[in-house]
Amino acid sequence: MKIVVLDSYTVNPGDLNWSELEKLGELVLYDRTSADQTISRSKEADAILTNKVVVDSTVIASLSKLRYIGVLATGTNVVDLNSARTRGIVVTNVPRYCVESVVQSVFAHLLNLVSNFSKHVAAVQCGEWLNSPDFSFSKGKPVELYGKRLGIVGFGATGRRVAQVAAAFGMKVVAYSPRLSLGSYYDEVQAVSLDDLFRISDVVSLHCPLTEQTRNLVNKQRLEAVKDGMLLINVSRGSILNEQDVADALNSGRLGGLGADVLSTEPPATDNPLLYAPNCYLTPHNAWATYEARTRLIQIATNNLKAFLENKPVNVVN
Q: Residue 203 pLDDT more than 90?
């Protein structure tokens, strides 16, 4: 079997190894693959693994030997699942490998927003503390999380873990998911409607997949109904936000702050309005990328392919 990894660098920039995957066949690694290289690099492959390289219907139709596509991530929007199904190509993903890492990032963003942590570090570094007449000073108005209401949109493995950590801070938690029964409680988390969640929450954290139903879910209309100064966390997918509407809400003060690890286009375009909005803190889509999470990712992806070769496929998404 010939195995081609189309974009290995983000998963393994050199601190891990592919030794277990190499045992399954002839392994070819590419750090990065552009759209016009995908077919030529994959044409002899029996199996391809991709993190962000798009494998669309044109690519799939051009690869006569292809039997397996392994997505090196949880989200599978980079693969045309219907085309793969029609061809009898198995597609797998890697679920839950980075839940703890992503949850950690959620609270890194949230704690930064409520404590003005990065502003305080920057103030000390530029000499403000050295020249302060007082032993203590604050940039903005730090607030505590205790007693604040957190709304979680999407209540899968990551959303549920966020709820547990929020409870440890003494936060009240509500959640929305199409699969939850409104008014019911799930480990002390109350299920509410999406509109109610945005209306009553002090903080909203997004943990839903990008679908046609969730695209632009956070928009002008929804933001007009939130509490003044509400905080927003997005570590799911950038296009869940209407980025111009969110930037406008930040500029007006309606939205108190945004902590986001994802944008609609990555790397971002220079005209992305969130790059210039106040109280907006962006990280470069690396919430998933701890050493521990990437180690699990490679191991699970390897096990997925091994199971396929043994005619016992797991984590199949098509």
A: yes
- Residues in CB range of 219: below 8 A, 6 or more apart: 242, 245
Overall average pLDDT of the 9-33 stretch: 97
Q: How far apart are CA 301 and CA 95, in angstroms?
A: 10
> Does the annotation mark 237 as catalytic?
yes
215 is catalytic: no
Selecting among 22, 26, 266, 292, the annotated active-site residue is 266
**Same domain, yes or no: 142 and 231:** yes
Q: Is 146 within a domain? A: yes
Q: What is the pTM of this model?
A: 0.92
Tens of pLDDT along 253-290?
Answer: 999 999 999 999 999 999 999 999 999 999 999 999 99
96 catalytic? Reply is no
Structural domain range at position 26 = 2-97+291-309
Q: Answer whether residue 210 shows pLDDT above 90.
A: no
Assigned token pair, 29: 């690694």
Which residue in the list 237, 243, 294, 296 is annotated as catalytic? 237
List, in sequence order, the alpha helices (H) in 147-242: 157-168, 194-200, 220-223
Evaluate whether residue 131 is within a structural domain: yes
Give the CA radius of gyration of the chain.
22
Tell me the two tokens of residue 211: 């679908």
